[in-house]
Structures
1.
Amino acid sequence: MNKNAKWIYSPKNKENRVITFSKKISLSGEVKKATLCASAMGLYFAEINGARVTDAVFTPGWTSGNVHTQYQKYDVTKMLSGKKAELALTAGKGWAVGYLTWYEWNHLYADHMSVICSLDVTYKDGSKESFCTDGTWSVHTSHIIDSEIYHGETVDMTADIISLGKAAVDETVKTKLFAQTGEFVREQERVAPMQVIITPKGERVIDFGQNMTGYVEVRVRGNRGDRIVFTHAEVLDNDGNFYTENMRSARNRIEYVLSGGDDVFKPSFSFQGYRYIRLEEYPFETVDPDCFTSVAVYSDMKRTGFFACGDEKVNQLYHNVLWGQRSNYLDVPTDCPQRDERLGWTGDAQVFCRAGAYNFDVKKFFRKWLSDCAAEQSLRTDGGVPIVVPNGLRSQGVASAWSDCAAIVPWEMYLAYGDKNLLRENYPMMEKWINYIRHAGTIECLWTDRWQYGDWLAMDGEGNQRCTGATQYDFIASAMYANSVQCLINAGKVLGYDVSEYEKLHENIVIAFNDNFMEDGLPCLSKHVSCRIELNSKEQQIVRAITQTSLTLILKFKLYRTEEVRKKVAAKLVELIHENGDRLSTGFVGTPYLLHVLSENGYTDVAYTLLLQEKMPSWLYSVNHGATTMWERWNCVQEDGAFSDVSMTSFNHYAYGAVADWLYGVVAGIKSLADGAGYEHISIAPKPSEKLGFVNCKVETAHGAVVSKWYYGKEFIHYEFEIPSGTTAELSLVDGTKKTLSSGKYLFTTKR
Ligand code: BGC
């Protein structure tokens, strides 16, 4: 961004309408190269002579604006052909200025929109000229009358464009600008209506057949002043009526007023999470479905993972995981895209990031988000990382498994992409985070004295609607602490740092953990006064020592001290699963690891039973209920068809989609090894099951495609592998075959 560019705003735009800043310029020669840099407090789109400079949307994206904000750089050489040009930046409220959260507060980073931009031109004769935002720019209203991310957008093609005079230089903006590091957000899949429904209430509803995030594009020609108004929903209720209660205060309402000519409408500063729209006002007798297209909008990540198997329900589950990610990786990894939330919940991001990195290339996406985790951390002195990043909740809250994203995500990104710089950049944050926990415990080496989310949405809490599950908070917090320290040790070793202090700390955590939480080789109730008395609901959490999640965490983080204990814990886990009718009972914390620990401890068959279970709680339960994305709760739709607690029932939460990393990493058996991160050193260890019949899986890596396929023949299981050049793979088959494979294609068989 040119140093002479000033932040500008419109003092007359008190009500924060969408406005356009513009400037007519004269070029003093023939243009050789022209670069436009732009950013906003709010959202913006830039135009030159009425044409948008990019197909990216929702620029400048969402970062921790109290610290830093991205600017974008566009090559606009081809857009400057004549001697004169008009530059324009249209700004809407977006995340920085508009409404956020269920508290319905606004002005997260600013109470008004401002923009900044520079056009840097090099002429053919070598001379240079720059055009920068300053007080000479003009401001006028736009056809976009109002826009809010949650509430929707109003576009009136008949509205007069009113001049608001000159812009003023905005001295209040303190954010630090940095060149975009994240992916651009772009329009992706375009989905035509599947059907037009008249509901039992007599409402006209369009069903796009897929729950997604984005917006509906409307192409229409009607009378000037005609109105098309619609709202969005994820589901129809039990009676087949349009259901919006789970959107809470988010209105998701779109209003278009037609020009009388050919119109193409879509929102510029608002997006929705939906499968259905209900036409509230529509000027024509019959609904022409061809006028409506649902456009998926998300960060422009390259698809890298592909998985298919012989079980159609598992394939649908995998489809739902992909759409959960598409729907929730819109610049920030969010919990959900539809209700008055859409926040970067750190726990959700952390549990899903492994699966996310198989499905798509998320390196840039997470590099940006991790820089926000660090930015939020820099705003406090204790090293804490908030529960949502960017901190749209303005919360000082810190929670285990959520804030642990600071240690887990950098390590997972390193494993997936092998980029030491990414690890180096984030190491200070990881370290500060560990120091935060160090001072958070009331007894040394345990994290015991903070408010926690527990095993969020586990079904073993008192009553199915209880949110925090039955596993002790301090047990989870201390186990996650051990894991985060382990991530720091791993990272430090890769970077060649001295980590002996952290190795000692890890040892001491394991000792303290065993002293406080283990008895006779199984978990016991905390011997220390614990988090059981400090709760979000003010009542005492009713906890059990032995839960599927407590056992899972011991196994996953290797908190056992002997082989005997490991076996006992694993056997107990299997016992609990059987006692629960071969069903899981885990929440956000236990679920991502559950199938892994089963297959790592000799119970792959039990893991498959859980994967293929159809009774609630299970993954396929939602598939059987017609889900096209992942549900927030195992029981979003209850067995009697009624919806769960409306205050928190999202049909598009990716957290439980973490199961996909078991499909890639264990069912197909493709993993990136830590001593050759970024798939330079690969593990190929498929664990086939006749119940799936076949698997066909590919992971595109920086070295090329890693392929793992298997199918059940009459007598044998047949395998086919592809190892990309420049890599080696450690093959491990179920019959005990172990081999190191160099690049190439391989066929193997094992006896059924
Ligand atoms: C969000 C979650 C999040 C949780 C924190 C919810 O409202 O939707 O996914 O992690 O709060 O416990």
2.
Amino acid sequence: MFLSRRPDRIDWLKKVPLFSGLSRRDLNLVARGTTGVVRTDRGRVLTRQGALGEEFLLIVDGSARVERDGKPIARLDVGDFFGEMSLIDGKPRSASVIAETPVTLLVVDSRSFGCLLDAVPGVRRKIAVTLCQRLRAADAALAEKN
Ligand code: CMP
């Protein structure tokens, strides 16, 4: 399902913590860069490790697991986002993300994602904080193994 009307998209955006606290102007900016809302079935591969990254995705309903080399490394739930790494560093997808339930996703294409980072400092900061949290969690998991 793709939603094309901007007011509909803004209603979806308001449900996403990444965009909470944004002004009406910034929400409009984000809505302009949002390609649509997509529903997928359980088991669908949402991003594939090693593939080229073309989209940034936010989970508005459902959950997904992150797998690296076939092993689960994290779980993503409502409000979480993924796909930012490839768009930021231009490298292939670092992991696969697989729907664990039927999932509803908000999709932002790579060009709009770049514009979003440039134009909305609040979003940039929240993405940076999430990257730090994921790195800390990965470090902790590694330390536990060793
Ligand atoms: P990207 O590399 O573009 O595509 C796979 C995505 O999985 C990645 O961006 C992140 O959004 C997400 N991801 C990768 N590693 C982790 C992790 N350790 N914890 C949570 N999400 C991750």
